[in-house]
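Annual report, structural modelling task.

Input specification for the 2-hydroxyethylsulfonic acid complex:
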Amino acid sequence: MSQIAFITGVTSGIGRATALRLAQDGVRLILCGRRADRLKALQQELAGQTETYPLLFDVRDRAAIEAAVAALPAEWQAVDFLVNNAGNAHGMDPVQSADPSDWDAMIDINVKGLLYVSRAVIPGMVARRSGHIVNMGSIAGKETYPNGSVYCASKAAVQSITDGMRLDLNPYGIKVTAIHPGMVETEFSVVRFKGDTERAANVYRGMTPLTADDIADTIAFVLSRPPHVVLADIVMYPTAQASATVVNRSGKS
Ligand code: 8X3
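The model returned the following structure:
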């Protein structure tokens, strides 16, 4: 029986690219998202490539997550890979004037949502004494930048939670990885700037950002290492980026 990956946030960006990439490796996919139409379309796209099982929930809804995981059919319960991808930035404003509801969204999705999903899935890995968790961090968790305090804090939390998982799950042979991308062009900036596509496009002006496929390739690589190898912490920049705030916009890389 082939391996099973449980991926959150599959209806766009890195999550969707990861589903498509792991399907190429014959991994069976539990596709988690909150947009039913996109989830169905992805399932149809993957038909014939691998088996999929859709789970419709918002990672903020702990009861829905617990119910969905508890109701997985027997043949979908032995999750090998948990990819905690769901996450977003909401707004980019100074702490003194940011909208607190943006803070709520980022902490609820990026931090609490990741924890709720993990809490539902990890006990099965512990019981089976096997599994691999990949958490989507960000360079924002390594380096705080202006107007990003709470997004950066949410990704710093992902770093700490990842490190804590690795410690707690060490006795059970479970691997834990964090991937920290810099600039990746997906719907990320459009969501961050609340639909302002011009402002979002300007983020990537004069440089070549990473793509969702670049991150998905790395996830596939991480998950395919031999049993005794774990890539614990990976920072990925586009070549044109050297830090959260240093970006070469000459268009040459
Ligand atoms: C995405 C990278 O630099 O916009 O997490 O925070 S950044």
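Residues 100-128 form the longest helix (29 residues).
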